[in-house]
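Quick one: structure tokens for this chain, please?
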Amino acid sequence: MTHFTTDIRPMSDLKSAGADVVRQARETGRPVALTRHGRAVAVVLSVEAFDELNASPAGYPYAPPDRAAERAAIAEADADFEAGRHSSHEDVVARLNHRLRSPKA
């Protein structure tokens, strides 16, 4: 959890006390937000915190996701289209409208 009184520092601290900013991130394990004109512009993380972030699925966009499943789905969709297994936009809209108007079972 971020401690707003200590974990948010002006960008100028990075120039004047950069080692202290890095030490803070490393020792606390929390990110240090750097601000310019009162708005966050960067975050300093310890290497351990960065590695932990990259190891988790929630780490995306820092850790690139495995795109194999997406590529397989696209290949399957392309094959279905080439084999004629597809519907026109009008047909899909008509079926959806029919389902929306039909009473639920």
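Residues 28 and 46 are 9 Å apart (CA to CA).
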